[in-house]
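Lab meeting prep.
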Amino acid sequence: MHWLPVILILPYFCLLLRIYRNLLKIKSFKSGSDPKIFVSVVVACRNEEKYLPSLLNDISVQDYHPDLFELIIIDDNSSDRTFNLASEFKGIKNIKVIKNDGKGKKHAIRTGVNSSADDFIILTDADCRMGKAWIKTIASFFDDKKPELIIGQVILLSKTGFLNRFQELEFLSLQGVTAGTAVTGNPVMCNGANLAFTKGTYHKYSDNLHDELVSGDDVFLLHSIKRDPENKIMWLESQKAIVSSVASENLCSFLRQRARWISKAGAYNDRSTQVLAIVTFVTILFQVILLIAGLFNPIFLVIFLAVFLLKSVPDFLILQNSTSRYGKRDLMKWFLPSQLIYPFYVIFVVLWSVFPAKRDDFNSPSPKGI
């Protein structure tokens, strides 16, 4: 009976190993076309005067014809100069700066989509950076593949310090799971910082985004689209289409954001997402329980070590693949300390998320979504 936990975490080992094997199938997209479709870039933001100028500059230098795209900034009741900064920017030919006619990010995105001049929409966040070929690459992918939803790559900007390294590793593991499930047509998550779809798709599947929850505008849309097996959801692998976002600036904002992410999990109705979430949580819970039990009986420390190794093998493989694809192999030296801390961090965040608190999707400049 002592070794029962080892058996019970085998589902995690098998699921994550399958995701790793799927990652090996990913091929980078090579754009061979010169798309002529009109693109609406939609950005919902609140109190982003610190980051918005950089985003505006990145969009202004895109190598996509200026007549073929527009930028729509939706100001969600900012108390700083976000609205004025966007309104005064002259570097983009087609730019709309509008006030959210409701409250919250989900309503702001709806406002932006409804204001778009044509059918193809790309979502990103105000704290993001992207290269010159970002719009062109996504538009070319859509023109070539015609999916209902495009899930793009998102990474965190590198900073020094263990907290930042820990965030980068965790975020890359989430990106690994996202890519490894999406490449087989069964995605379990996505990130609204780099997401594309048509206006028609959004209007058809955006009726159940759980407006009562401040987070999840991206994942709930994904799950809604995914329910129709005829819909094609695709992962876009391309260095030219990567979006970079900022990490949380301090431990409190980092934990607050993760608590928001976990708090929406109870509303998920996608079976694959539910199974992965439950299997992951059970595995983490067993690690914590075994380590505590080991303080009273050394045999549990041995079992903990076996469970730790069994969990770490697929985790390491996924992160090794992800860090290699993103040119961040140096992060792997932080893998072991992060693995030791991770179970306690997750349990703490779960406990935090069950207590009611006033949360806001725009509280911190952390990457949104997922």
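Slide two material, second protein:
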Amino acid sequence: MDRLPRWADVALVPLVSLALAAIISALVILSIGENPGEALSVMVDGALGSPYGWGYTLYYTTSFIFTGLAVTIAFHAGLFNIGGEGQSQLGGLGVALVLLSVPWPHWSVALLAASLGAAAFGAAWAAIPAWLQARRGSHIVITTIMFNYIAASLLVYMLVDVLRPAGQMDSATARFGEAVRLPTFDQIPGLNLIFDKGMPANITFFIALAAAWGVWALLWRTRLGYEIRTFGKSEAAARYAGINPTRIIMIAMLLSGALAGLMSVNNVMGEAERLVMNSAEGAGFIGIAVALMGRNHPIGVVLAAILFGFLYQGGAELGLWTKIPIELRIVVQGLVILFTGALNYMVEMLLVRIFALFRTKGAA
């Protein structure tokens, strides 16, 4: 079977998939009697047309980078971790416990401690499905799905019966305090010339970019990364080469869970400044689409996360300024997932035929 050039597989297939999703989305908007051009204009202006819009877009982008990387590193080990939502929620619990247990003197020290707590709790929540896969043969997809529900129930219990301050009605922890408030973009020298007050993008964005670089370096510049990718390509070959399957499964899932848990630093410590219900905000599931569209490469994950950040913020603007329901962004996200995931092979085969046609005409 003919194959696409590397550049086409990496860049052209996602772009064509995105174009197809956009066309179908436009048809959906037309079907409800609205103007697709107006909808696109509102989304672009609301998400990218101002420093305020960019601030929210990059806030969502930060969360999606972490969860996209979590899916990516597991995928390279041949594992499909769809438990990012639960791992992110448990990461948020780790952040809250760390920040509420000690009167931290400065946000920088608290950020380090909170990051360690988030990563540890996320990794611990991923460790159980990993062990069940490695030692008992339980399918990682099934166990991570179930652990999402368990995490949600555990969080309800903790916020209602354990961590909620006396006399407080809403299910949330106490606020963490002024000393541990993370700097937002409008408080960072240089960026404060661009960004306005009142938007949630914060210093965690740069941690997410560093995590993307770290995942790239791990997977393609270390022996462990080579073992992870080898195991993901062929377990039999990896066993023959002396690679321990249990070790690789555990390490890959622990790293995946830690990355998903780190997402909570952005919204629990950075935006909400306390732990609330649904702290993951759906980012664990969006990370699957981000990884698929980013072709499971850290650079692609960052670019795809920006796209989904745009869809999230732009979709919110649609709900505010047009008659188009905000739920439409879920439809658009679903279409992007459909074409970049389930129908990815169809798009690839279409492009293979087009490339083969051009080669035939060139040879003639």
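Talking points for slide two:
The mean pLDDT is 91.
The CA atoms of residues 97 and 117 lie 8 Å apart.
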